[in-house]
Amino acid sequence: MRAVVTVVGKDKTGIIARVSGLFYEKNINILDISQKLMQNLFTMISLVDLSNSSVDFDGLKAELKKVGEELNVSITILPEDMFKSVNGERNE
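^ thats the sequence. predicted structure below, dont judge the formating
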């Protein structure tokens, strides 16, 4: 299973390290990642592969929520399928 993880919040040191560290701990592979500062707002979007993860989707969602609260940022995770159209093709 693949999922899209977004992180948004006030920029501070350690956001990427903390989130990617959680992925490492749970054996989650980062397939693609993009991060950008929009003035003082940090944004990150990651495509991750949960195939070999030591935690299921709901468990990861709960872990990401804890990290978000710890860092005072918003972290969301959605299955990649949520971004596909009804006929199975990607929305471009």
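Residues 57-71 form the longest helix (15 residues).
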